[in-house]
């Protein structure tokens, strides 16, 4: 009976690892970081809903779960109607977007503003943060 249980547990571990590595599937909620999860979720929610100006720096050793924590929070927040209407996600990679000019071009592409701005590259984010050049929107860059 113990052998069957051990095989079942081993199979579950393999299944979890396969989901995480091959399908990049995150657990519903990261374990062991409940306080950080709550604090960061509240901060991001206030930023999206109330337009608070916040900056966050998440630090830790490689593989400690920084990205997993952020992605799980964004997944949760994107399901809340109040947050959903104010949150635009832009994903940048420091290896690809190596300077401000390239990063602004990528932000423009991901926000689908190419038809609005043409080939111009902005010197700052001010113009990107306005829709139809008439009304500013709340910004939350992550």
Chain-wise SSE layout:
Elements (H helix, E strand, L loop, with lengths): L1 H21 L11 H17 L15 H12 L3 H4 L15 H11 L3 H4 L12 E2 L3 E2 L6
Helix pairs in contact: 2-3
Describe the structure.
By secondary structure, this protein is mainly α. The protein has two domains: 2-84, no CATH class; 88-142, no CATH class. Helices cover 49% and strands 3% of the residues. It contains six helices and two strands; from the N terminus they run ααααααββ. A two-stranded antiparallel ribbon has the order 1-2. Strand 1 and strand 2 (135-136) form a beta hairpin. The chain is globular. 9% of the residues are buried.
* First-to-last CA distance: 49 Å
Instruction: Count up the domains.
Output: 2
Average pLDDT, all residues: 77
Helical amount = 40-55%
Largest sheet: 2 strands, antiparallel
Class per helix and strand makeup: mainly alpha
Features:
single chain, mainly alpha, 2 domains, two-stranded antiparallel sheet, 3% strand
Write a concise synopsis of the structure shown.
The chain has helices at 2-22, 34-50, 66-77, 81-84, 100-110, 114-117, and strands at 130-131, 135-136.
């Amino acid at each position: 009976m113990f052998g069957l249980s051990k095989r079942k547990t081993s199979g579950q571990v393999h299944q979890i690892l396969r989901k995480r590595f091959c399908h990049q599937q995150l657990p519903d909620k990261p374990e062991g970081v409940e306080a950080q999860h709550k604090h960061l979720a509240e901060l991001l929610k206030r930023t999206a809903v109330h337009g608070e100006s916040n900056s966050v720096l998440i630090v830790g050793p490689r593989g400690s779960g920084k990205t997993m924590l952020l992605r799980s929070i964004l997944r949760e927040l994107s399901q809340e109607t109040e947050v959903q209407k104010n949150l635009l996600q832009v994903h940048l990679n420091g290896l690809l977007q190596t300077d401000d000019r390239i990063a602004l071009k990528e932000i423009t592409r991901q926000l689908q503003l190419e038809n609005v701005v043409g080939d111009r590259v902005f010197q700052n984010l001010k113009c990107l943060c306005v829709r139809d050049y008439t009304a500013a929107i709340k910004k939350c860059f992550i």
